[in-house]
Specification:
two-stranded antiparallel ribbon, alpha+beta, 143 residues, two-stranded antiparallel sheet
């Protein structure tokens, strides 16, 4: 069962799109008790800091721009990453992969249609509501 995970990543940002160069899912399997708060907490074997240091040493020679916050915000809010109902490692990893895949699709749509992620999501939401409403009207007419 997974109670939490960390997703440190590095992005290559151009004028139009942000692409992850490296990311890793660190599962928090180590259980410990915080002495001050007396609450059970979880930790991963590798820290985010150690992984990000590894990323910077491997990509420091390339003129890359790192915009980690923008990608993470898009990943979390546009794809509902935090609302995963899964509790198994495999399904959690699948959910994470599909969320990242959705962000790539949003980036492609952003370039094509010249809208930001939130405008695209809102447009899809409105079209879905209209479609459901039309299906409801069809069902009522048939009854």
């Amino acid at each position: 069962m997974i109670k939490g995970f960390n997703i440190p990543n590095a992005l290559h940002h151009t004028q139009e799109v942000s692409i992850p160069l490296a990311f890793e899912v660190f599962k928090k399997f180590i259980v410990f008790c915080d002495v001050e708060t007396r609450q059970i907490k979880r930790s991963s074997e590798v820290t985010k800091n150690a992984f990000l240091q590894w990323i910077f040493t491997h990509y420091v020679n390339n003129p890359l721009e790192f915009r980690i916050g923008k990608f993470y915000k898009s990943l979390k809010s546009s794809t509902e990453l935090a609302k995963s109902p899964t509790r198994r490692v495999r399904t959690e990893q699948n959910h994470l992969f599909m969320s990242m895949h959705a962000v790539f699709k949003l980036e492609r749509l952003k370039i094509t249609h010249k809208f930001n992620h939130f405008s695209l999501r809102y447009g899809l939401y409105i079209k879905t509501i209209i479609s459901v409403y039309n299906a409801l009207l069809t069902l009522r007419a048939a009854a």
